[in-house]
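agent> Task received from the user: take the single chain below, predict its 3D structure, and emit structure tokens. No templates, no multimer pairing.
agent> Plan: (1) validate residues, (2) run structure prediction, (3) serialize to tokens, (4) report one or two observations.
agent> Step 1 OK, no nonstandard residues flagged.
tool_call: predict_structure(input=
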Amino acid sequence: MFLTISTTGTTENPATDLGFLLHKHPGRAQAFSTSHGTAHVFYPEATAERCTAALLLEVDPVALVRRGQGKGRGGAPDAALAQYVNDRPYAASSLLAVALSGVFRTALKGQCALRPELPGRTLPLRIEIPVLPARGGPQMVGRLFGPLGWDRVESTPVALDERFPEWGDSRYVRLVLEGGARLEDALRQLYVLLPVLDDAKHYWVAPDEVDKLLRAGDGWLAGHPEHALITARYLARRKELTRDAMERLELARLAEADGSEAEELDNAVAAAPDGADAAPEVPGTPERAVPLAVRRRDAILGALREAGAQRVLDLGCGEGHLVRALLKDPAYTEVLGVDVSVRALTIAARRLRLERMGERQSSRVRLLQGSLAYTDKRLAGYDAAVLSEVIEHLDLPRLPALEYAVFAAARPRTVLVTTPNVEYNVRWESLPAGHVRHRDHRFEWTREEFRAWAARVAGRYGYTVAHVPVGDEDPEVGAPTQMAVFTAAAETAATRTAPTETAATETPKEGEAA
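)
tool_result: status=success, residues=514
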């Protein structure tokens, strides 16, 4: 497999700056081990006027088979050629995309420590791939690269055998791209579109491929006219992964149009699948009301700032929206997210990009699996704990165990608890009468029930409590979300009292006052 990247320059801006961007010195050839073979980087020419970097990937088909990675090409036309005789050493494919991401990792990220101004510069680029599988032929190449702003997209069919022109063309093309572009953008396009044109992956397509696709496609994929085709092919037509990617691309598109963050839209949708967490239509309400999920998060952040918290627990952190917001503020030196769901924690890790996070930032955050119904010594010693839309997901008989685990065993100085105000549900026309806002809610309390519960917990474990409405207050039914702010008072004997059966019966039952 072979690929060249060329650029031109002047004395003031020499073409050899390409070496800084790629983090590969033009003066020597270098070899890198990859999971599929050996990648060689060298420069056929390197002058101030013109510089060309070449990537040559030597693939060992026998080694691929022995490692269990050479079991055909996912239905591609040459799958019948058997495992040991095929085009993998010669034609650009997902293997070359993997090599690109490994060998030119910093260039793909748009980083250049020695010359930080270079990644943002538009360069006159010429990219050539002599043999590229293209399912759909030159027309497909044009559909994929044409909308990306290249001045020239040339895809010349490669004959099956030049000695026998009557045999016609193969499914391979010679690709040439020319135009002004940032190197980072060009590499990210190639990383996605090489396997898309081949319409095959040479490795197992796991759920993390969705994150890879969205990272590489950031800024161009959501608006591409063929984004559905690109997504389906890149993810090997795995329906669940494709659906996930398409939903996230749509969120990104809507967020860009709305001028907001995709996470805010995603959080509003995820928090209330029945539509109950969005602001109801009330005369005089601004056309674009701030989602309740965002207002709730802002209220929590405000309360934490007022409490002077630095080390914060997010108990029931879900997919990590609040954790991410906390990490944006350097005032919080440590954030610990806890959830019982491994799947939610996996999504949170992806959302936070933990695998790409710098050492200083990663030292501030941890994600742990755990149940809030059990004491956990890892939760002790924090300034504040947040239970945002958590308690209503527990069965009422298990609530005393959570109370003890949080207020007695962990005992942070400040505890914030938010929960829906069931009285407000009548303001949502889309919510049937008598229904809770989420199918997993085991109960939803009135304001009186919540205040009674909060007062009992505060008195039992040595806290004072204040109540804060979240969202627009209705004069008849109050605000959509109610928040209790618990502040630890002096230690009392009650703070170490374990829950009993009597305590469980003191918890208000659904529909009853405490």
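agent> Step 4: summary for the user.
Residues 69-82, 264-288, 492-514 have pLDDT under 50 and may be disordered.
agent> Done.
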